[in-house]
Every structure is written in structure tokens, then in C-alpha cells.
């Protein structure tokens, strides 16, 4: 059994926990979420996102380092995710293998970095490369041969194309409209 600690305790963590739950139910994956870690817990947050789904809530990454568990960064914003992942690694923790929802598609020869997660109905194209601790949301499409940088988030229903280029989506706002604009600006720069 693989023990996992989720580092970050908001809506993003709830989505990743959903991927884990579906992997357990639909494929029999031997995964056990032993704790969810966040520095800013409140009872409303725990009830809203995790009621009946996890029993152990910790504060501080240092407390997670004692669990003998692999981890996944579940902070929504890429810069915050990078920070908690770097702290966890500095404490000797190890990232989990990529978590891929059973209803996602991952093309042949695609490479997914450790700690990354791919939600249902997302598609990762042939030979695409996803960096470490990336999150690909529901319905997102990453075309063939595209490279997504570490800690990036590809939002719901986003489309990323232009093979042979590396996209860093670390500054994307939590709305598809903004991500689309960021991709459009980056695409325009890549063509010139």
C-alpha cells in the first residue's frame, strides 16, 4: 500500500483526493491518504471539502515528514505548490508517482512528472511532457509533443498546443478565461 500525504487543504486538495478515491474504487489502486496538511485549517474548510473522506488533518509540513508517506502538493496556486514541495523535499520527503484519473487519456510515450495529477476527461497527447507537480484539470487537452513546465496548472477545458515549445503556466489565474489569454499571448510570442 502506498501512503500519501496531501500538502495543501483547500478545493484543489479535494479534487486530487477525488482522483485518488476514483482510482481506489475503479481500479483497486492501493493508495491510502494518511493526512491532509495545511497551515491554515478551520473546521468549516474541513467539513466543506473533506467530511467523511479523511480523518487526519495536520498543520505544518514538518508534521507530515514524520508520517513515512509519499506526498503530492495540493496547493492550488503554482507558486504556493512549488514552495510546499520544496519544503517537503528539504525535509527528506518523496513525491508520489503521477495520479491519473481512470477516465483520463494519456497518449503513448507521454511522460508525466512525479507528484502530477490528471483529472477525469483530460487528454495528454502523444509524446507530451508534463513536469513535476503539475495539475491538469477536468477536460483539459494537452496536444502531442507539448511540454508543460514544473508546477504548472492547466485549467478546466483549456487547450494547449504548439508542439515543440515549453509552456510555463505558473502565473495563470484560477479562471479558464485568463489561462486562455496567457496561452494566446505565449502562442503569439512563439510565432514571431
Q: How are the secondary structure elements laid out?
A:
Elements: E1 2-7, H1 11-27, E2 31-37, H2 43-50, E3 57-58, H3 61-65, E4 70-73, H4 78-90, E5 99-100, E6 105-106, E7 111-112, E8 117-118, E9 123-124, E10 129-130, E11 135-136, E12 141-142, E13 147-148, E14 153-154, E15 159-160, E16 166-167, H5 176-191
Parallel strand pairs: 1-2, 1-4, 2-3, 5-8, 6-9, 7-10, 8-11, 9-12, 10-13, 11-14, 12-15, 13-16
Which short descriptors sum up this protein?
2 domains, 5 helices, alpha/beta, 4-stranded parallel sheet, disordered C terminus, UDP N-Acetylglucosamine Acyltransferase, domain 1, Rossmann fold, 192 residues
Describe this structure in words.
- This protein has a four-stranded parallel sheet.
- With 192 residues, the protein is of the alpha/beta class.
- It has five helices and 16 strands.
- The chain has helices at residues 11-27, 43-50, 61-65, 78-90, 176-191; strands at residues 2-7, 31-37, 57-58, 70-73, 99-100, 105-106, 111-112, 117-118, 123-124, 129-130, 135-136, 141-142, 147-148, 153-154, 159-160, 166-167.
CATH H level of the largest domain: which superfamily? Answer: Hexapeptide repeat proteins
How many H/I helices?
5
**SSE pattern:** EHEHEHEHEEEEEEEEEEEEH
Counting helices, strands and paired strands, the structural category is alpha/beta
Helix percentage range: 25-40%
Low-confidence stretches: 170-192
